[in-house]
Design brief:
Blueprint lengths: L1 H23 L11 H31 L5 H34 L2 H46 L1
Helix pairs in contact: 1-2, 1-3, 2-3, 3-4
């Protein structure tokens, strides 16, 4: 539980800050001047960001309502899945936000390019690196257990 709380302490402020920025944006005078495509990108960004915030805060609300926890392991499993889903939506919202800002400042082709760069960074660092690292650790363990089984059979 402590690890989960520490991870949320890192993710939650970023999601909250992004949501605050996105909530305020439509009420600025310049928002009405952006093109329709940018408004759709904004809506997708806002919905993904809001989804991440809901998923990040869900374990805290659920924990409060379910106290005392009867099945701690199940709760941790569900909370972990909610956090990963929240990270997925935060990933999307960060990419869309970067694309939207760059498109507004420099132009649409640059916005798409920068969005692709940030999507690649997030994909590599948040999702692929942990997956490959975990997989690499499990392969030697599996092969050594097979070797041990062969050794035990002889």
């Amino acid at each position: 539980m402590t690890e989960m709380l520490n991870e949320l302490r890192i993710l939650l402020p970023g999601a909250q800050l992004l949501n605050g920025f996105l909530i305020a944006l439509p009420f600025t005078s310049g928002f009405r001047q952006i093109v329709q495509l940018e408004k759709w990108i904004f809506m997708a960004t806002f919905l993904c960001s809001l989804s991440s915030l809901i998923l990040f805060t869900a374990p805290a609300v659920q924990h409060r309502l379910l106290r005392p926890l009867e099945d701690r392991m199940h709760f941790k499993d569900v909370a972990s899945k909610q956090m990963l889903a929240g990270a997925f939506f935060l990933s999307l919202s960060l990419v869309l936000c970067a694309s939207l800002v760059i498109a507004e400042v420099i132009g649409h082709p640059a916005g798409l390019g920068v969005g692709a760069v940030f999507a690649s960074m997030i994909l590599a660092l948040w999702w692929l690196y942990p997956w490959f690292s975990k997989r690499r650790k499990s392969i030697p363990a599996a092969s050594s257990s097979k070797q041990q089984a062969l050794f035990d059979d002889t």
